[in-house]
């Protein structure tokens, strides 16, 4: 009877040892997967950081362009106002020339 009990205990120990080995392999695999996931997270973090820097640079460039467009708009407005003044003066000059011609035609 003692032999049977010892054999049963020994068999149970072998089975538990096998299960423990399998569990250890699974834990090792999970450990490798965790390491790979951590590496991926680090790579993604670097990519996010690079994208953030690129976005910041793009925003700075857009701000500079906006300032340049605003400056150009002011200059174009000044040119348009100057042209309006010149057109008005030209019109006044033509009116004056017509008045002078009319005055010469009277004499």
Automatic annotation (TrEMBL):
Q: Which UniProt keywords apply?
A: Coiled coil
- Indicate the segments annotated as coiled coil, or none if absent: 13-75
The record ties this protein, via SUPFAM superfamilies, to: Methyl-accepting chemotaxis protein (MCP) signaling domain
| Gene source species | Geobacillus thermodenitrificans
The UniProt record lists the keyword Coiled coil: yes
This one is known as: t-SNARE coiled-coil homology domain-containing protein
């Amino acid at each position: 009877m003692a032999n049977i009990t010892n054999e049963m205990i020994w068999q149970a120990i072998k089975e538990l040892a096998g299960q423990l080995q399998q569990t250890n392999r699974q834990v090792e695999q999970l450990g490798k997967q965790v390491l790979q996931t951590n590496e991926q997270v680090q790579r993604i973090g670097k990519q996010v950081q690079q994208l953030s820097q690129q976005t910041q640079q793009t925003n700075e460039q857009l701000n500079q362009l906006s300032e340049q467009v605003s400056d150009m708009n002011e200059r174009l407005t000044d040119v348009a106002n100057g042209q309006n003044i010149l057109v008005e003066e030209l019109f006044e000059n033509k009116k004056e020339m017509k008045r002078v011609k009319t005055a010469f035609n009277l004499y």
